[in-house]
Amino acid sequence: MKTVPGYLLAIFCALLLAACSSALRWHPDYHKVRSGETLYSIAMQYNLDQRQLASWNRLGSGTYIRAGQKLRLTPPSGYTSAQSKDGNAKRSSSSLADLPAPTWRWPTRGSVLLRFGESSKTQSGIRIVGTEGQSVTATAAGEVVYAGTGLRSYGQLLILKHNETWLSAYGFNSKLLVTEGARVQAGQAIASMGRDSGGQALLHFEIRRNGQPVDPLRYLPPH
Predict the structure, then answer these.
(1) How far are the Cα atoms of 40, 125, 190 from residue 176, in angstroms, in the given order?
(2) Which residue range(s) make up the domain with 61?
(3) Does the pLDDT at position 17 exceed 90?
(4) Rounded Cα distance, 7 and 80, in Å
């Protein structure tokens, strides 16, 4: 029986990994709203900016959605926007208004277990190891725009809106101390640390800019 040359095997593996990576990035054209979801949680699920999602679905400046509603996740045919620099409808957030970032602070005490992009679990944030029940605090002042368990891979999740550009997210909480619509101050206790699906006590923390995850360690102060 003939053996496959090593270089051909390497090429095949590279093509397979590329195909798998593309499949992981795919998402549908529409999303059916489930009870408890908000425009922000849906945008976060698909790495979109909530302003794009609102515009594509003609929600105006509002964010009200209802269970059973069908939201498109791509620009409609012929879509143009004042936010688009070249007139083309794109998923890119590069043309969205970019407001200044707030002054960030660490959301809990503990060491970084997994850095941004270090694992499949941290493609959108970092994981900070700690003790179950310890305080999780707001990384900056803002509004609670999502509080719930609708995104399964995050456990009990909070999303804070700091301005139209910047969001922060806090996953795997054992208890949520604030509700949607609440205004919170930087350093205010908003949750208690819980455990991930593997039983590790930790906080999954994200910072998002125009809907896209960025490395929190580039913005947080030295730790």
Answers:
(1) 17, 20, 6
(2) 26-76
(3) no
(4) 47
Pair (132, 40) in one structural domain: no
pTM of this structure: 0.76
* CATH, residue 179: 2.70.70.10
Do 214 and 116 share a structural domain? yes
Q: Do 211 and 116 share a domain, yes or no? A: yes
Residue bearing tokens 């910072």: 207
Do 122 and 205 lie in one domain? The reply is yes
In angstroms, rounded to a whole number, what is the distance separating the alpha carbons of residues 110 and 212?
25
In tens, the pLDDT along 93-125 reads 445 678 999 999 999 999 999 999 999 999 999
d(CA 30, CA 15): 29
Residue 141 and residue 161: Cα distance in Å, rounded? 8
For residue 10, give every residue at least 6 positions away whose Cβ sits within 8 Å of its Cβ, in sequence order, or none.
none
Q: Which residues of 12-33 are buried (b: 16+ CB within 10 A; e: fewer)?
A: eeeeeeeeeeeeeeeeeeebeb
CB count, 10 Å around CB of 99?
A: 13
